[in-house]
Amino acid sequence: MNDAERPTLAAASGQYAGGDSGSGTVSGNRGLAIEEPLIFEQGSPEKTAVDLPPIPAHLSRLGGLAPRQSIGLPGLSEPEVVRHYLRLSQQNYGIDTGFFPLGSCTMKHNPRLNEKLARLPGLGDVHPLQPVATVQGALAVIFHCAAWLKALTGMPAVAMSPAAGAHGEMVGLMAIRAALEARGDARRRVIVPESAHGTNPASAVACGYAVEAVAADARGRVDPATLAERLGPDVAAVMLTNPNTCGLFETHIREIAAATHAAGAFFYCDGANFNAIVGRVRPADLGIDAMHINLHKTFSTPHGGGGPGSGPVVLSAALSPYAPVSIVIETPAGYRLIERADAEANASIGRIKGFHGQFGMFVRALAYMMSMGGDGLRQVASDAVLNANYILASLKETLTPAFEGPCMHEALFDDRCLAGTGVTTLDLAKALIDEGFHPMTVYFPLVVHGAMLVEPTETESKATLDQFIRVMRELVQRAHRSGAAPFHAAPRLAPRRRLDETTAARHPVLRWRPAANERSTKQPQSTR
Fold it and tell me: Are 150 and 143 a contacting pair, CB within 8 Å?
């Protein structure tokens, strides 16, 4: 079976990189980078790595759901299985592999101390249905993690159960809606900056609100006068990210908060970028009523791969009665759970998630906060801002900063530096893969043309940043010297070549088929 016929992951998503299609080797391997087919291609249903006795005669309890044929699971030996998944792991790029400069997503180091504590007996093996008396230590972890978050934000209450940042946004808006309804105020409009994360308007719509966008000024920030013109008696909330998605501190935030409150609305802050100000600025002092916190961004819990997320929401005194259950409280007799929206939590919006939140993330976040201390967290924010400004200052003569002046935790560039080369932001990002770097965030925020958003976090050394800076300079200079052709071919050294991402998204191949002629005729192909 030749490369064109192989129904591999590559065939389902782009150009196959092995064999005679560019690797230069018979096997498709590149030295120690081993070409790895799908597990279905390696095994067969007739093989098995273990000896199993015949199934004795029995009465099926499946009724009409009994299987009519083999489900076709591949059979492999134990070494084959181990090698397969090890090789796949070697094709994955993570924060433990190298520099991961995704802006906005904040891919920071996860200290191994956190992981060790999360696996301690009594923490790693507790069950949420255990009697409260048997999980006092686990409840103490949730309580003290919440206490840290309240102290760092200056807010009187925190909802720990939201499963992610977007979930936290929705909970904050649900609390705002509950507070408005309690006072008989039927407001139905939410103002959101154009540069906001897409989850902001989505959360507002999910809560029944109409969304009105407000543009940023030439400085990349929300103009308070422009915002004031949009405020009115039908505005329920203003949602602002600070530092914002352009990596800039909203210098007029207190003025914006005051205008929002004067209009009878609530002020929601997207706390995704709290890692840039933690220990230095308390959100409560800025006039914020609700703010979610991404534990993975600020407090080093794992991020990526779809989870596990955790997005606690801090609430002002005006919103705290509406916090969702469950809530951990401390009593003279120990820790207790409030699990129903009645009695002492009769104004609560109720339960928004099964059980009590992402407990393993609470353990990791608390371990991080306690090991760092308040002074350490302040230093984290300072170092994150320093690293980002070092990148900005070092690259501003080669790349083009999107806005004038220093940044906060991430440096934002646009694509003017590539003008006349035929090279796009995407081409530059693909070329970074060949250099051994995960690309920065591209084309976001949408308000900046050809955006390149770089967030080094506080965990990278100067040597690492210098290497990244040197590579970025050389790539941009190469684009002007050599033109677009080499960039259009990138990546050349990755396990898979460049994909036609648009076709792959519109016509995904979601099922592997053993015969080539059974495959979809709408296969995504390489763009080059």
Answer: no
DSSP single-letter state for residue 347: T
- The predicted-structure confidence for 381-412, as pLDDT tens digits, reads as follows 999 999 999 999 999 999 999 999 999 999 99
The amino acid sitting at 153 is T
* Beta carbons within 8 Å of 32's beta carbon, 6+ residues apart: none
**455 is written with which tokens?**
């967030």
**Could you tell me if 241 and 269 are in contact, meaning their C-beta atoms sit under 8 angstroms apart?**
yes
End-to-end CA distance of the chain: 23
Q: What is the CATH number of domain 113-369?
A: 3.40.640.10
Cβ(425)–Cβ(432) below 8 Å: no
Alpha helix ranges (H) inside 326-400: 359-395
Nearest in space to 220 (alpha carbons), one of 254, 255, 247:
247
Q: Return the closest-CA partner of residue 171 out of 329, 17, 179, 389.
A: 179
Q: How far apart, in whole angstroms, are the C-alpha atoms of residue 168 and residue 312?
A: 6
User: Hey, which residues does 450 pair with through a beta bridge?
Assistant: none
> Tokens representing 249?
């501190």
The phi and psi torsions of 63 (rounded to 5 degrees) equal 60, -130
Contacts (Cβ under 8 Å, ≥6 apart) of 198: none
For the stretch 438-471, pLDDT in tens is 999 999 999 999 999 999 999 999 999 999 999 9
**CA 518 and chain centroid, separation:** 36
Tell me which residue of 206, 175, 143, 193 sits closest to 289, measured CA to CA: 175
Cβ-based neighbours of 135, under 8 Å, separated by 6 or more: 126
User: With helix as H, strand as E and coil as C, how does 204-266 read?
Assistant: HHHCCCEEEEECECCCCCECHHHHHHHCCCCEEEEEEECCCCCCCCCCCHHHHHHHHHHCCCE
pTM of the shown model: 0.88
pLDDT tens digit string along 194-216? Answer: 989 889 999 999 999 999 999 99
Residue 157 DSSP label: E
> CB of 477 within 8 A of CB of 460?
no
SS3 343: helix
Give residue limits of the domains in the chain: 113-369
Distance CA 134, CA 126 (A): 9
Q: Specify the amino acid at residue 13.
A: S
